[in-house]
Structure formats: structure tokens, C-alpha cells
Amino acid sequence: MRTLLFLAALAFAPLAQAQSLDDLAWLKGCWRAGGEGPQITEVWSAPPMPAMVGYSYTVGEGETQGWEQMRIEMIDGAPHFVAMPNGAAPVRFRMRPTLDLLVGGEHGVGATFENAAHDFPQRVNYLRVGNRLTATISRLDGSDPIHFRYRRINCSGALRP
User: Quick one: CA torsion of 101, 53, 91, 78, rounded to 10 degrees?
Assistant: First the structure.
């Protein structure tokens, strides 16, 4: 039922194109996913830099299992999500209109980035509702989704963006 409500909210959500990186400042902060298994920490800075800079790392079984450098920058007048997982070459995803919606009675905001030419993922979606952030990667048609459900955490001095 929750999924149906979420999909309905997306279908009827008003669209507004982000004009600048300031429009994506809601992503700023420290986020953590996971519980007893591996934990993923994702950290985002916000403007006034010329790009939003982010990184994530996964820790499990006492060691780093993966990491990624990310940024959101303006390219040709539109925000682009640029990912470099485990130090790989950058992959760019162009932003589609942002979402401003109600999910379960709470105000939410989101952003979707796409690159049809990339193998996987072809879509990166962020949805924030309160102190919860869901990142979903998938194919362009939404198939093969992988969800990362984060909660806001206090940034320690070492993590602070």
C-alpha cells in the first residue's frame, strides 16, 4: 500500500526544474544506511562551492568494502550527478525536473538523474522526506532497482562537509 501511495504521489507531483545547485541544498549533510550488516555513510556538502561534493563508503566485517566520490555540478545549464565508484572514471547523469511532493502526509523533495547510454545504473534518484533519504539506482525504465534507505546522522568533525 505504501508503494502505491508513493507512486501516486510521484504521478501527481508538481514539477519544478532546479535552476542552480542551491535548489539541491536539501541533500546536504551526513546520512547512514544499514543496521547489523554493512553500513553505508553518504556525505554531501552544499554551495557556495561551484559544485556539491559528496562521497560515500561502505564498512562491513571491520573493513571498507566500497567507496564512491560524487559531485553535482552545472553542465550546459543543468545539474548533473557525476559518480566515480571505487575511483573509476566519472559517469555523468543529467537531472530531470525535481519533485516536490507529499509522501504519507509529509512534505518531500527529490531529484532524478539519468544517463541512457550507461550500462547500470541508468537512473539515480534521491527522495528526502524529513530526516530520511532514499537513494535508488535502476535501469532507465525503473527495472532492477536497488534502494538505499538513509537516516540523517550528526556529522562528526571527521565527516563534516
Answer: 50
